[in-house]
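Support request, please re-run this one:
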Amino acid sequence: MRKDDVELLREIQKNTQMGLHALEIMESKVYDDKLSLQLIRESFKYGELHDRAKAQLLAAKQMPEPENKVAKAMLSVSINGSTLLNTTTGHLADLMIKGSNMGLSSLWRALNRNGQAGEQSMELARELMDFEENNIKELRKYL
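Re-run finished. Output below.
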């Protein structure tokens, strides 16, 4: 496995970890049943993509991305602060859209920096990007 593959897979892993953590925080704040179901579906897909990236790294005897506790804490503070006075469905959807956009940006950067990654890693990154774009499309309905 090339260095570019390792870096891209670690970025996928990091991105999905943050998505899962954000959904975990949002779970208790959502009161709209349809939005809640949407977020549960997102959580399952993030978990699947995370596990696939981790499995590819482990199969190549590479260390998966360690959990970034500082980034998780910062995300928790940000979401909790942003929802302290406003937990409307539209506001929560807007926060999730912003998170997906940040994830897309980080994936584009990783793709541009790791252009020599193999097809399997690139396909997984593209699948995550398609998933994020679809999330944004679905979440716009709640704005």
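The two ends are 43 Å apart (CA to CA). Residues 5 and 118 are 6 Å apart (CA to CA).
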